[in-house]
Amino acid sequence: MKWGNIEIPWTVSWTGEETQFVGRCKYAGGMLALRMIEAPGVGKPQFKTPHSDRQRKCIVEGRCDLCGKHLRLSTKVSLSHARVRSNGAEGPCVMQVEPLVHKPCALVCIEQCPALKRDIAAGILQVRQVLRSRVQIAIMGLEYIQHYVPGYQPQRDEKIAGHAKVELLRWIDRDEAWLRQTAEAA
Question: Which domain of life is it from (predicted)?
Fold first, then answer.
């Protein structure tokens, strides 16, 4: 989907989708989750606010953050500010909420997104080729849920899912030049 001549990431929420609620979510294993109404393309895109259901679906099903198509059999790229953590279950890892993207989609992202352009220039955005990853679902505290769904009262010991996370287990650090290699060769 485009907004003018800008590609809109598949996971972006729109002003027509601002209503949030707690409900069952198949992308969170059927558990209760913080959810949003579905109305992609209605209103204006909110680039800084991912749609909670599409964000989980994207990560759980292994879809590209930009185009929404499956990533299997593709070079998977992480564009994230997340740093390596030493306390992963299998050793060092990167834990991020940003879904992965296809390599050509990553190039579109850094060419069109002002924030990504700025962060690449500042050296604070990490470009990684992902070789192995897995999914985790965040469990959110009551204060977090009530911020988005005021007055929500959970049942006893109720756990509510928030965003999905990608845990990078194996990757190769790359850069913008690597993203451009395939595009320039074509």
Answer: Bacteria
Give alpha helix (H) positions in the chain.
52-61, 103-112, 114-122, 142-148, 176-185
* pLDDT 10s digits, 23-81: 999 999 999 999 999 999 999 999 999 999 999 999 999 999 999 999 999 999 999 99
Tell which residue, 102, 38, 96, has the closest CA to residue 70: 102
**Residues 93-104: b if buried by 16+ CB within 10 A, e if exposed:** bbbbebbbbbbb
- Contact in structure between 39 and 51 (CB atoms under 8 Å): no
pLDDT of 71-129, one tens digit each?
Answer: 999 999 999 999 998 877 788 899 999 999 999 999 999 999 999 999 999 999 999 99
